[in-house]
Amino acid sequence: MPSTRVATVQSVLAHRFPDASPQRGWSRGTIATGVTGLDAILPDGGFQRGRLAVWSPGLGVAALLRTTCLRVVAEGERSVWIDVAHTVTGACWQEGPLLIKPETTVAGLRAAEELARSGGFALVALDGADPDTTAMVRLSRAIHEGGSALVLLTHTTALASLRLVSRPLPAEYAWHRSPLGEPSVVTAVKLRVEARASGWFASTELAIPVWYDEQRLAPDYHNPDRRGSESRQQLLTTAKI
Amino acid sequence: MSFVCLSGLAGPEGPLNTTDLSVALIDRAPKILVDQNADGAAQPLLWADARGLQSRSLAQTLIGVLLQQGCQAPRAGVAATAIAARVAATRGTEPITVVPPGSDRDWLAPFPVSVLDPEPDLANLLEGTGIESCGDFASLDQAAVELRFGGAGVRCWRLSRGDDRRLLFGPPPPPLPHASLEWTDYVLRDPERLLFVINRLAGSVTASLRELGQGARTFTLVFSLDRGGTVEHPFHPSRPNADQRTWVRLIRDELERVRLPDAVSGVVLRVDAVLPSASIQGDLLDRGFATAQAAETALARALDEKAHLLSPVITRHPLLRRRTVWREEPAAVVWRRPELHGSGFEPRLAFQLMPEPQPVAVVTETSRDFSIPRRYQDRDGWHEILEASGPECVSGGAWEESFALDLYCCVRADGELVQLARDVQRDTWTLEGSWR
Question: d(Cα B258, Cα B221) in Å, to the nearest integer?
Answer without folding.
Answer: 12
